[in-house]
Amino acid sequence: MNKKIKIVIGVLAIVGIIGLIVLAIYGIMKGFSFFATLVPVYISGSLIVLGILSIIAGKLFLRKKNVYKKIAPKHIVLETPLYADLIYIIGIILLSLGLLTFGPLFSFLKGATFLLGFMTFFILAMIIIMVFRLRYALHDKIEITSDFIRYDDPDGQSSLTIEKAQIIEILHLKVFSYTRYGYSENAYSYKLFIKYTNPNNDQVTFELKPEDMNLKLELLVESIAECSYPIVMRSKKILEGIEWEGHHFKED
């Protein structure tokens, strides 16, 4: 990471968070609808449109050809480009600011005090989260080789390196969700876990969350398999502890 860029992003993050805290305190004192009186509708509407377009553009830049780098036959780096991170995160911030200052929305929710307060709190929290993510936007890389897997912390500057000899199992788990109609083969999500032995000979299970780095889970699974790591596929129902082999659905 370039040191100057890191300092600039850090300063912007601190200033942004302080500003948001001040706005939140003022909003609690005066009522959150005051945000809508500060900005004309055409400006807040433009922020919403620009935010949505930026989010879409940021997602388009996160396709495999932009995040997948093959250094050698058994050496793959998955890393989101800086511009993709910035466009995506700034898009969410612009969209949030637009919603927070959009007069017609506050007029529509005028009678729903609880919903209005919850929505405002959620938007402010989302902006703060995005400002923090902007601070670490350059530190989001997963490196897979035939000897180790290195996983950067997207919310900090640390990283975890797991040697191949330490790995006990890599589990690709399909979790079936419980809906109002019960379990369904069409309602599910995927998770990826690495079970390994740490230097103290303790068994540790660590969940890989590439989506926190704006990377697709299936691309990570594909890259791990390409570097000749065996991946175990199992399934389970979200409210039950029993796992079974494969990714097929099991009736009760």
Description of the structure:
The structure is a single chain. The protein is an alpha+beta fold. The protein folds into two domains: 3-135, no CATH class; 143-245, PH-domain like. It contains eight helices and ten strands. The chain has a five-stranded antiparallel sheet with strand order 1-2-3-4-5. The chain has a five-stranded mixed sheet with strand order 8-7-6-9-10, with no helix packed on it. Helix 3 (41-60) packs antiparallel against helix 5 and helix 5 runs antiparallel to helix 7 (113-135). The longest helix is centred in the first third of the chain and has 28 residues, at 3-30. The termini are far apart. 23% of the residues are buried. The model has no long low-confidence stretch (mean pLDDT 81).
Question: Can you summarize this structure?
Answer:
The chain has 252 residues and is of the alpha+beta class.
SSE succession: HHHHEEHHHEEEEEEHEE
Coarse structural class: alpha+beta
Q: Give the spatial strand order of the biggest sheet.
A: 1-2-3-4-5
Contiguous runs where pLDDT drops below 50 for at least 5 residues: none
Assembly type: single chain
**Describe the biggest sheet?**
5 strands, antiparallel
> What is the overall pLDDT average?
81
Estimate nothing, just give the exact number of structural domains. 2
Shape descriptor: globular
Topology overview:
Layout: H1 3-30, H2 34-38, H3 41-60, H4 64-67, E1 68-72, E2 75-79, H5 82-100, H6 103-108, H7 113-135, E3 141-145, E4 148-152, E5 159-163, E6 167-179, E7 182-197, E8 203-208, H8 217-226, E9 232-237, E10 243-245
Parallel strand pairs: 6-9
Antiparallel strand pairs: 1-2, 2-3, 3-4, 4-5, 6-7, 7-8, 9-10
